[in-house]
Amino acid sequence: MTTFSYITFLATLTIFILTSTVRSCPASDRAALLAFKAALHEPYLGIFNSWTGTDCCHNWYGVSCDMETKRVADINLRGESEDPIFQKAGRSGYMTGSISPSICKLERLSSLTISDWKGISGPIPACITSLPFLRILDLIGNRISGEIPADIGRLERMTVLNIADNLITGRIPRSLTNLSSLMHLDLRNNRIWGPLPLDFGRLRMLSRALLSRNYISGTIPDSISKIYRLADLDLSLNKLSGEIPASLGKMAVLATLNLDSNKLSGKIPDSLFNSAIGNLNLSKNTFQGYLPDVFGPRSYFTVLDLSYNNFWGPIPKSLSQASFIGHLDLSHNRLCGRIPAGPPFDHLEASSFAYNACLCGKPLGACH
What is the annotated signal peptide range for this record (predicted)? Predict the structure, then answer.
């Protein structure tokens, strides 16, 4: 080989090596992923079998990289998935272990989904709040414990925080209301206690707030009504007390309000019955007094559940003026008097009116 040919060969080889290096993920990202993998045990599907070779951006199951920087941007590992690897095995996934803090070394991480594995335990790594590009954190359906990181509010880009169906304890951090881009918050079915932050309404981009099945206490913050995009609010099965803020009935797009199974009391605001809310569940609280006779053409309910309270007096006649009521449950109260005739009462079953003081008329027994 001539000197010229040798120099040309070396130059070509150098360019190839440099190009290959640029196209593959950095060694630091690869090392972080392998340390993350080492803390987990998945015995049935072999999803980590593809995590081999030097390029973690290419054919590593559940890993995606940024096209320009070649840094790891997304980790998407779902234990219940339609992926062929699950269909071939004929089963959903089960994984044990914990989430290694090494995940925090993936400095460009935008999305972290490790959901529905049923057996992953341990805490959410506190260092996760140091990932400036993190938009999605989805850890639903595991056995993750500990508290929500206190400085979660540092994640200014976060749009989805889903840690439902785990064993999370502690209070909702005050800093959570700093998540000005948050659109979906799901904390259901954990062991979270203490009050909702009074400035919850700072989450102006929020469209869904799902916090049922916890031990949340205190009152419902009036500031929630400032979240003009909020369509779904579920605070059921907690320990909330006090009255419902009347401002909730004035929210433009709030369609579902579930407050059942709490310790709420006082008068139900009239505004709730003539609002955008179409699914209203206030059952199993300690409301009392007459039901407001304020229903009208703007009242449209797929579900209206007021059961298991202490309402007395007659059923409001204005209920028959509602434009639609699909399911109505007034059972287990102290209501008395004749059930109004006509819609919606003519399509409801006796169970909708059972266990009251002295209701009568169809679909119950005749009035005497």
Answer: 1-24
